[in-house]
Amino acid sequence: MRTELVSIPTPTHPLDGAYYTPDGPSRGAAMYCHGNQMNFYVCAARFLAPHMTALGYEYLAFNRRGHDSVSTYNSRDCVGGAYQTVAEGIEDNDLAAKYLADKGFKNPIVIGHSNGGVLASEHVVRHPETRALILLSAHAGGNRLTNPRAARNFSINDQTDEQIKEAEALMAAGKPRQLMLIPAWWWVISARTFLDRLANAPDLVENAKRIRCPVLFIRGDQEPKENYPAERFKENCPGPCEVAIIPNCDHFYVGAEDRVAKTVTDWLVQRMG
User: pTM for this structure?
Assistant: First the structure.
């Protein structure tokens, strides 16, 4: 396996990442979409790389502009997960797919973890020619202001109404980038992004109705199925969809990395040959 650090241009700052290539011939490519406040060098973004390249796939793990919580990029202006909008996250996935297309890999396999899984489902809805979709503990998403199911048991504390009022007041005062402290929900987030994530996240189960490519949905047995609705996704999915529940496994797959990787690679061998 060979590894190259890459930067993918965007209208603002680049998407940095790692591009992994197999030692032998390539049979295709996959792109990995990380979750909120994460990045290209943790969790499955990292541990799947040797397994994917062993199967002959080139593997792109990249930072979307919403990586980590708060960061900087060649300036004192703050960037990161506390500032990214849903629309920017969707655009970042399109730019990553274009990067692979420019390398000759159209319609890559799309892999998404947590909120990255929600955005991955949106990408596949918009690009139905996608070869396959792998959802790793994808969150239900949806409008948490109007859909109680989307918000149920989510890690928003019981002060949400007050926090919404605070965010709206900051927006009205012309301070969309003002940071708010939100214990147990990303901890720190800008007023604009807080309201955006509540209202504009794609609805995972609704998206399932429009996805026809093969899907693997993995969830750890320590994760609540209401938040990570693999079974409901499968019920709504008109195409082939397999659900795998990994025993003794949390949301970040700590200690279960090899089992998750084997589940992914076994499924790919079965589906892709």
Answer: 0.95
